Amino acid sequence: MSSSIFRPGFLLVGLVATAGFTLVASAVRAQVKPNDGLVAGEVAPKLVAQQFKFTEGPAVDKAGNVYFTDQPNDKIWKYSTDGKLSVFLEKSGRANGLYFDKQGNLLACADEQNQLWSIAPDGKVTVLLQDVQGHRFNGPNDLWIHPTSQAIYFTDPYYQRDYWTRKAPDPNIGGQKLYYLPKGQKQPQVADDQLQQPNGIIGTPDGRQLYVADIKANKTYRYQIGTDGKLTNRQLFVEQGSDGMTIDNQGNVYLTGKGVTIYNSAGQKIQHIPVPAEWTGNVCFGGKDRKTLFITASESVFVLPMQVKGVQ
C-alpha cells in the first residue's frame, strides 16, 4: 500500500460521463504482449474511471465484486461484476488495504486512527485493533487472512499522513513490523521485526506460504507458515519491492509499483504489464470467474482480462 500521493502525467481519450464518474471507451495505448498464457490476448489495461485522488486496497467478495479505497477522500468504492461503480462507505477511517473474511466482512487497515476495522455488509464498523501493548501502531497498511485459521497478518510501516497530528512514530513500538493476530485474540504477535518498511502482503490459498514486500529495501520475501501461525524460513523471493500484491491459480505473484510485474513461484520474471499512471498501488482478481485483473493506479482504476484466475 502506498506511501504518498501521485498524479498520472498521461492523456487519455474517449471519455464518457456516466452516473457521476468518468468511463473510458477506448483502451490505453500501451499494450501487453502475451506471455505464458497469462493475459487474454494482445490487449491493454482498460480505464474504468479516473475521478479519484489516490486509489488503493482492492479486495474481492464471494460474488466477484471488487471493493477499493480512495484514501485521501476517505471512501471505499464498489466495482460490481456488471461494471458499475458506487460508494460503499463514506468516512472509511482513511482505509488503505482491504480483505474479506469468510463471513463476508470487509477488513480494513484504517490508518486515520491507526486501527484495524471489520466492516459488515451493511456498513457497520467494528474496531478489531487499535494498539499493541498499549502503544499506537505506526499505521496498519495491508493485510491478508489465513484461509484455515482465519489469523490476520498485517504490515505496519510508518508513512506520515497529513491528517495526523503526530509528526513521528511512537519510539516505544520499536520499528516497522509484520504482525499476526490469531483468531479470537485481542493482541497481535510480532511475525517479523527485521524489515525496514513492510508493505504489500499476500498468502497462498493452501495457507502454507506468505509473501511480504519490504518496499524500502526493494525486496520481497517468502515465509513458511507453521501450524501455530508463526513464520519460519524467510527467504528472498525477488529483488523487487512492492506496494500491493496478489497471486493467481498458477502460483504467480503480481507485484506493483511501476506497472504490474509478474513472477512465477520460482521467482523468475515472466511478464510486465505497463499501466499508464505514475504509480500502480495495488491489484487483485475480480469478476464472476475471477479472470479480471483489477488495478488501482494513482487517480485511476483499470481492468485487464486474463486467462489465469485469482485465488483470493
Automatic annotation (TrEMBL):
<dbReference type="InterPro" id="IPR051262">
    <property type="entry name" value="SMP-30/CGR1_Lactonase"/>
</dbReference>
<dbReference type="InterPro" id="IPR011042">
    <property type="entry name" value="6-blade_b-propeller_TolB-like"/>
</dbReference>
<dbReference type="Pfam" id="PF08450">
    <property type="entry name" value="SGL"/>
</dbReference>
<protein>
    <submittedName>
        <fullName>SMP-30/gluconolactonase/LRE family protein</fullName>
    </submittedName>
</protein>
<feature type="domain" description="SMP-30/Gluconolactonase/LRE-like region">
    <location>
        <begin position="54"/>
        <end position="298"/>
    </location>
</feature>
<keyword id="KW-0378">Hydrolase</keyword>
<dbReference type="InterPro" id="IPR013658">
    <property type="entry name" value="SGL"/>
</dbReference>
